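Q: Make up one entry.
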Amino acid sequence: MSPAQKLHASFPSAGFFRRLAAWVYDLLVAVAIVMLASGLALAAAALFTSLGWVTLPEGMDHAGWLNSSPLYGLYLLTVLGLFFGWFWYRSGQTLGMRAWRLKIQQRNGARITKKQTFVRLITCCFGLGNLWVLVDFKNRRAWHDYAAGTEMVTLSKEANQLYYWKEL
């Protein structure tokens, strides 16, 4: 175990209200990302229509056509999954988590793996699993933390200044 990993294993578990604050912060970023992804999808739909690849039903605009497709919802979920998954895997912190000094890591302080990232994404229930932190006084872990074998810790101000923790 490296010295940095020992240090990270000693940070306290994150509480509910700090998680909630980071979640709200990340929600604002996620809304902006969904708006950008929707704009790109609308532009693609308009291009496909102008090229004759797609024919819209009578009286339906591009936005209505996209909303009627289950693939559009899957596309937006994939974009959000890639956003959260990339940040969790690369640094253990999303933008909101960084602002509130939170970090996702393995129980031994190491960075999470791709498999753990995927399990967290599948089991996160849009943040509802964090409510379990209010009941789990001892460990303060959410459902997705248990499922993925991870934990969310509160970093010190100094530890939060380091960006990727490459030695972990």
The chain has a mean pLDDT of 89. The two ends are 9 Å apart (CA to CA). Residues 3-161 form one domain.
